[in-house]
Amino acid sequence: MADSGNFDGDGRSVRVIGAPTDYGQDRRGVDMGPSAIRYGGLSDGLAEAGVATEDTGDLLVPRAEERDPDYRTPSEGKARFLRETEDVCSRLASEVRESLADGHTPLVLGGDHSIAIGTVSGAAAEADVGAVWFDAHGDLNTPTTTPSGNVHGMPLAALLGVREWEDVDWANAPRLAPENVAIVGLRSLDDAEREILRDSPISAYTMSEIDDRSLADVVEDALAVASDGTEGYHVSLDLDWLDPTIAPGVGTPVRGGVDYREAHHAMEQVAEDGGMRSMELVEVNPTLDQHNETAELAVELAASAFGKRIL
């Protein structure tokens, strides 16, 4: 266990938890994301943000190649490696819950985005929380709507209890309330996800709206949505939220994303708001990256979210 010591920041202590899973998607390599992020200078970055840091290492996650995808679903449909994903998320939820009980802010390193079910479940175990989902995608597919069967496209639907997830106590996941969920940076949706968003109180902010209003205004609204009547919020940062010209090391890149300075400003707003209860960095795939550029950017953004400033 690594410990960066104590600092003179806002008194916040961060516990880093690695969740090196690639069960949720079909592009190998994202399981190496936690190592790449640490190698990218995470400990030093958080130290520069003025927070004490404790790293508990990685959850034990058997390689996908050693397992059968075994389409096991709560209803008709498909969801690859669902049993394995459920196991990882259950253990991760316990780690996150324990971190909060010990007075630490959990920072979870993915791994693919399916781990969000575990992170949010742990963060919401003892409190009503909201969520700000920085992502190019909606993550609102279900086993009956998914075109791929990949669970990394389903975590928000599972946490909201959408459709066939409604009666399934998957990984004992506490539910998010849709009125306290904001998705920021949308630019790629499947038809079923679009239908869900049209019929839901989820606040969904597309890149077009960001272009019209500015990212700063959108993030301000998103933080207010996630904070309204809650005891804090979870920040889920999928690196494909960023434009692939600055974050090439992701499995599902979508052109037209957030640029470098915008991303930092958004994370600075998170730090200034002060309501973040937990955070995760997901979908960093070093096999697709260039010189660890995406992992290093993930470190920088985490540091900004925890309070790092130029002055």
Can you put this structure into words, describing what you see?
With 311 residues, the protein is of the alpha/beta class. It has helices spanning 33-39, 42-48, 82-101, 116-123, 155-160, 191-198, 207-213, 215-227, 260-273, 293-305, and strands spanning 2-3, 13-19, 52-58, 105-110, 130-134, 181-186, 203-206, 233-238, 276-282. It has one domain (2-305): Ureohydrolase domain (Arginase, Chain A, 3-Layer(aba) Sandwich). The radius of gyration is 17 Å and the shape is globular. Mean pLDDT is 89; it is low at 1-9. This is Arginase. Keywords: Arginine metabolism, Hydrolase, Manganese, Metal-binding. Its cofactor is Mn(2+). Its EC number is 3.5.3.1.
Kindly list the characteristics that best describe this protein.
nine-stranded mixed sheet, 311 residues, disordered N terminus, alpha/beta
Strands ordered across the widest β-sheet = 1-3-2-4-9-8-5-6-7
Number of helices: 10
Distance, first to last CA? 31 Å
Average pLDDT, rounded to a whole number, is 89
Overall domain count = 1
Inertia-based shape: globular
DSSP summary, beta strand count: 9
Percentage of β-strand residues: 15-25%
Low-pLDDT stretches: 1-9
Taking Cα atoms only, what radius of gyration do you get, to the nearest Å? 17 Å
**Derived structural class:** alpha/beta
In percent, how helical is the residue content? Answer: 25-40%
Biggest sheet record = 9 strands, mixed
CATH superfamily: Ureohydrolase domain
